[in-house]
Design brief:
- The structure is a single chain.
- The protein contains no helices and eleven strands.
- With 119 residues, the chain is an all-beta fold.
- The strands form two sheets. Strands 2, 4, 5, 6, 9, 10 and 11 form a seven-stranded mixed β-sheet that branches. Strands 1-3-8-7 form a four-stranded antiparallel β-sheet, with no helix packed on it.
């Protein structure tokens, strides 16, 4: 079992920055991939950014060049640095962890943190 606790959301003006944090209860070395998803009202949850245990990263086209995902293994924490924020970035942001044990896959979610970007 992995517990994920997000923090860092809030209200910011367009063009501003926020950094989200996701603290894991388990050593993130043992987690295959961690990522950030977001869900706006009435929309589907979508992948924003992901990072693997080998530090490969993947970003949604809408955030490339503006958002950066990175990890601090010593703190068992993954971050999402969000710059040049736009009103379209407004959503609840969820931390996600994926691991595999043989043929069994596990997915864990945080409780979500609200990000609101005003125009």
């Amino acid at each position: 079992q992995v517990q994920l606790v997000e923090s860092g959301g809030g209200l910011v003006q367009a063009g501003g920055s926020l950094r989200l944090s996701c603290a894991s209860s388990r050593n993130i070395f043992s987690i295959d991939a961690m990522g950030w998803y977001r869900q706006a009202p009435g929309a589907r949850r979508e992948l924003v950014a992901a990072i693997t245990s080998g530090d490969s990263t993947n970003y949604a086209d809408s955030v490339k060049g503006r958002f950066t995902i990175f990890r601090d293994n010593a703190k068992n924490t993954v971050y999402l640095q969000m710059n040049s924020l736009k009103p379209d970035d407004t959503a609840v942001y969820y931390c996600h962890a994926h691991s595999r044990n043989g043929m069994i896959e596990y997915n864990y979610w945080g409780q979500g943190t609200q990000v609101t970007v005003s125009s």
